[in-house]
Design brief:
Number of helices: 4
């Protein structure tokens, strides 16, 4: 098992738990998905927002924005320069 797979296994949450952090769980899933299939044609935040809309359409706009902001590892904004 690789390092990323070990990290993913470590953060799995128990949805039945009284203290289940649903937004944190969704955020981790979104981050994990993008680390596996990053597309350089748009920003990380744009991709996160799209992924959340597709996989969690019932999330509020505010929750989607919070999660996309937290998971975005490109904090400078805008598109990265083409290499």
């Amino acid at each position: 098992m690789g390092q990323l797979e070990e990290q993913a296994a470590a953060w799995q949450f128990d949805e039945a738990a009284e203290n289940y952090p649903s937004e944190l769980d969704v955020a981790m899933q979104a981050w994990w998905a993008l680390t596996k299939q990053r597309d350089s044609s748009s920003t990380v935040k744009q991709q996160l927002t799209a992924w959340l809309g597709k996989n969690y359409p019932k999330l509020s706009d505010e929750a989607r924005e919070r999660i996309a902001t937290i998971c975005n590892w490109e904090k400078r904004g805008g598109r990265r320069p083409q290499e």
